[in-house]
Design a protein that fits this description.
About 40% of the residues lie in helices and about 15% in strands. The protein has about 375 residues and is an alpha/beta fold. Helix 3 runs parallel beside helix 4. It binds pyridoxal-5'-phosphate. Pyridoxal-5'-phosphate (PLP) binds next to helix 3.
Length: about 375
């Protein structure tokens, strides 16, 4: 099987599995317990917190473990809503943001959705001009999960600072895939998830700059400084920390390798399969993302054909699969329903090989030809 859907989820790496295993077996202590078994678990959780903090250039007390990206996103937006002031976001956010924003609006909250250009880049001038005084939060994703467009995060951080509002970024697709520095980039909140980086599912974190005033979303014990109570997911947290360590090692080499492989894939497809166009930005793009439309062929049909060849790709966003209708991201980029339905997404990372890419291109070519011959 060839797995080119790394943006949907990833295989847990050996290092994460090995790190987790003792905590699923003998080291089952509760981190709140005062005897050694508990202290061992607590120390492992704190070690993960230190690893993660280092990866985004902050200190550990700003990291709050959650169940993943969706929870982290919801937590920040709920807090912003409770301040009773407007929220600014973009039209291409993940549903973890968009559907929470809709819920906020249904409760009388004020949410403004900023458009992007045809490549998926937020229009900074529009943000600066429209952001109203008293805005509580700007929430713009670090990188888009469908087209891979990377937003001008540092510039957004600067605008937010100038307008005296806070800045949240959903970095689920970017964390450990590109360098992130919350200080330099002016980020006040950052969401990330374990399962996009070869860590386990059901675990993530939220970075919070001014956590002293940050309220819990659920109430209970004193875990996570009383802000995210509930007995910690020790194996998950430990696994995520181990995965972060692996991902961050030689990150720039991994990025170059992914970019080379992705460009090779894109160039071969564009050269060898007529009628393909790339969606999203050529220059501001996650290193492993390729989203393209194939003339005359529905993306969902191509996903099924490729699956018969044991190649995993996705049509639009896998997180949104099962959802009817064209991709909201491609629609926001100005595409018609018909164009949007033709999109496929191939996402690779440093674990993929050139041989896999070659076989993928050959299968894609064969399936496109078969499809086109059949539809004549
Ligand atoms: N935000 C983005 C950009 C994502 O791509 C995803 C998942 O694909 C999420 C949020 C949700 O993360 P999780 O699956 O950890 O809840």
């Amino acid at each position: 099987m060839i797995y080119l859907d790394q943006a949907a989820t990833t295989k847990v790496c050996d290092e994460a599995k090995e790190a987790m295993e003792p905590f699923l077996r003998d080291l089952y202590g509760n981190p709140s317990s005062l005897y050694e078994l508990g202290e061992t678990a607590k120390e492992a959780v704190e070690e993960s917190r230190r690893i993660i903090a280092k990866a985004i250039h902050c200190t550990p007390e700003h990291i709050f473990f959650t169940s993943g990206g969706t929870e982290s996103d919801n937590w920040v937006l709920e807090q912003a809503f409770l301040k009773g002031r407007p929220i600014f976001t973009s039209t291409i956010e993940h549903h973890a943001i968009l559907n929470k924003c809709r819920q906020i609006q249904s409760r009388g909250g004020d949410v403004c959705y900023l458009p992007t250009d045809s490549k998926g880049v937020i229009q900074l001038k529009l943000l600066e001009e429209n952001i109203v005084s008293g805005t509580s939060l700007v929430s713009v994703m670090f990188a888009n999960n469908e087209v891979g467009t990377m937003e001008p995060v540092e510039e957004i951080g600067n605008i937010a600072k100038k307008k005296h509002c806070e800045f949240h970024t959903d970095a689920v697709q970017a964390f450990c895939h590109v360098p992130i520095d919350v200080e330099r980039m002016g980020i006040d909140y950052l969401s990330a998830s374990g399962h996009k980086i070869h860590g386990p599912k059901g675990v993530g974190f939220l970075y919070v700059r001014n956590y002293q005033n940050f309220l819990p979303m659920i109430y209970g014990g004193e875990q996570e400084q009383g802000r995210r109570p509930g007995t910690e997911n020790v194996p998950g947290i430990v696994g995520m920390g181990a995965a972060v360590k692996v991902q961050m090692k030689n990150l720039s080499e991994k990025i170059h390798r992914e970019e080379r492989l992705r460009n090779y894939l894109a160039n071969r497809i564009l050269r060898e399969i007529p009628g393909c166009t790339v969606n999203g930005s050529a220059s501001r793009r996650l290193p492993g993302n390729l989203n393209l439309s194939i003339a005359g062929i529905e993306g969902a049909a191509m996903v099924t054909l490729m699956s018969d060849d044991e190649i995993c790709i996705s049509a639009g966003s896998a997180c949104a699969s099962g959802q009817a209708g064209p991709s909201h991201v491609l629609k926001a980029l100005g595409q018609s329903d018909e164009q949007a339905y033709r999109a496929i997404r191939l996402t690779l990372d440093y674990t993929n090989t050139k041989e896999e890419i070659d076989r993928t291109v050959e299968c894609l070519k064969r399936n496109v030809n078969r499809f086109r011959r059949g539809s004549r």
